């Protein structure tokens, strides 16, 4: 069996965030509210893009996928983190931990590739508006999304299998608020230098490559923006692109900070704080940023609320 392990450890204890007991209730309430905002806002985007025929375009198809991803991505981590904040037992089973590792890296990998796909979509819309519907046909969009999910699954599977094969014979306290590869490697009772290199190189290459593709798309987009003659058309294009750039900067910035730089025991504390940003805060901010910067989305939301009130 691929996931066979020869360990004495049957479960792990998640250390969690370094929070003083006096602030525990306030921190729990804050994270709970942010999670509810995340679910509500992303469900609204999914509903609006599905129900409004005017939003049945490639851009909003990818945005629907992003909203779905943000719900799933944060749900891998946040519910368990909230339970652990108010629980004395912060245990997670060995296989539960592996599942969390897999889905965290799987969904995170889908998201960063999806950002590249969305930036390419914006490039085609601005640079080739007359050929946009031909280039970004429904089949092309579906193929891009399916390939993204399959490649991301394979990428995450490498980390899961490599981690599952390590012997864990104690201690079992994970210095994080969820199971991630790097803090788990610190607990293995064998040499993990190969695993650390794999995390840095594979995940680092995955993140850096998709980030460079996104940057390249926006370099080409900037060239074509200056060719748009009307100021209204330029503002509309800039509004859509700036929303995407805000979201991309948050996600890539924290991913590069966590997985590209070398790992030390001291860096794990910094990783925990960065993880709060991309697992709790960013998924809730994404729909807000896209809605505030997108007139079509705001119009569609108003129509949906008016229809529900009638």
Automatic annotation (TrEMBL):
<dbReference type="GO" id="GO:0005886">
    <property type="term" value="C:plasma membrane"/>
</dbReference>
<keyword id="KW-0297">G-protein coupled receptor</keyword>
<dbReference type="GO" id="GO:0004984">
    <property type="term" value="F:olfactory receptor activity"/>
</dbReference>
<feature type="transmembrane region" description="Helical">
    <location>
        <begin position="98"/>
        <end position="120"/>
    </location>
</feature>
<dbReference type="InterPro" id="IPR000276">
    <property type="entry name" value="GPCR_Rhodpsn"/>
</dbReference>
<dbReference type="Pfam" id="PF13853">
    <property type="entry name" value="7tm_4"/>
</dbReference>
<keyword id="KW-0807">Transducer</keyword>
<protein>
    <recommendedName>
        <fullName>G-protein coupled receptors family 1 profile domain-containing protein</fullName>
    </recommendedName>
</protein>
<keyword id="KW-0812">Transmembrane</keyword>
<keyword id="KW-0472">Membrane</keyword>
<dbReference type="GO" id="GO:0004930">
    <property type="term" value="F:G protein-coupled receptor activity"/>
</dbReference>
<feature type="transmembrane region" description="Helical">
    <location>
        <begin position="12"/>
        <end position="37"/>
    </location>
</feature>
<keyword id="KW-1003">Cell membrane</keyword>
<feature type="transmembrane region" description="Helical">
    <location>
        <begin position="206"/>
        <end position="226"/>
    </location>
</feature>
<dbReference type="InterPro" id="IPR017452">
    <property type="entry name" value="GPCR_Rhodpsn_7TM"/>
</dbReference>
<keyword id="KW-0716">Sensory transduction</keyword>
<keyword id="KW-1133">Transmembrane helix</keyword>
<dbReference type="InterPro" id="IPR000725">
    <property type="entry name" value="Olfact_rcpt"/>
</dbReference>
<feature type="transmembrane region" description="Helical">
    <location>
        <begin position="58"/>
        <end position="78"/>
    </location>
</feature>
<dbReference type="InterPro" id="IPR050516">
    <property type="entry name" value="Olfactory_GPCR"/>
</dbReference>
<keyword id="KW-0552">Olfaction</keyword>
<feature type="transmembrane region" description="Helical">
    <location>
        <begin position="141"/>
        <end position="158"/>
    </location>
</feature>
<feature type="transmembrane region" description="Helical">
    <location>
        <begin position="272"/>
        <end position="292"/>
    </location>
</feature>
<feature type="transmembrane region" description="Helical">
    <location>
        <begin position="238"/>
        <end position="260"/>
    </location>
</feature>
<keyword id="KW-0675">Receptor</keyword>
<feature type="domain" description="G-protein coupled receptors family 1 profile">
    <location>
        <begin position="41"/>
        <end position="290"/>
    </location>
</feature>
């Amino acid at each position: 069996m691929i996931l066979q392990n020869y360990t004495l450890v049957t479960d792990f204890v998640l250390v969690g965030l370094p929070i003083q007991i006096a602030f525990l209730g306030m921190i729990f309430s804050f994270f709970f509210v942010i999670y509810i905002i995340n679910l509500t806002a992303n469900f609204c985007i999914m509903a609006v893009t599905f129900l409004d025929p005017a939003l049945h375009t490639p851009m909003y198809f990818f945005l629907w996928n992003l909203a779905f991803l943000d719900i799933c991505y944060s749900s891998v981590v946040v519910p368990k983190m909230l339970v652990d904040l108010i629980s004395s037992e912060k245990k997670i089973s060995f296989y539960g931990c592996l599942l969390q590792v897999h889905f965290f890296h799987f969904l995170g990998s889908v998201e960063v590739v999806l950002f590249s796909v969305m930036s390419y979509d914006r490039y085609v819309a601005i640079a080739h508006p007359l050929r946009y519907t031909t280039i970004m046909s429904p089949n092309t969009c579906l193929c891009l999304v399916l390939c993204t999910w399959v490649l991301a699954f394979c990428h995450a599977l490498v980390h899961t299998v490599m981690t599952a094969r390590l012997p864990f014979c104690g201690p079992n306290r994970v210095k994080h608020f969820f199971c991630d590869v790097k803090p788990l490697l610190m607990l293995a009772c064998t040499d993990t230098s190969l695993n650390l290199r794999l995390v840095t190189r594979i995940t680092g290459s995955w993140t850096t490559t998709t980030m460079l593709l996104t940057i390249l798309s926006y370099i080409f987009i900037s060239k074509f923006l200056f060719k748009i003659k009307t100021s209204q058309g330029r503002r509309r294009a800039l509004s859509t692109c700036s929303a995407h750039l805000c979201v991309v900067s948050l996600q890539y910035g924290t991913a590069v900070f966590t997985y590209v730089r070398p790992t030390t025991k001291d860096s794990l504390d910094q990783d925990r704080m960065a993880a709060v940003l991309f697992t709790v805060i960013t998924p809730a901010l994404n729909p807000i940023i896209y809605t505030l910067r997108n007139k079509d989305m705001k119009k569609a939301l108003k129509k949906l609320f008016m229809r529900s009130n009638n």
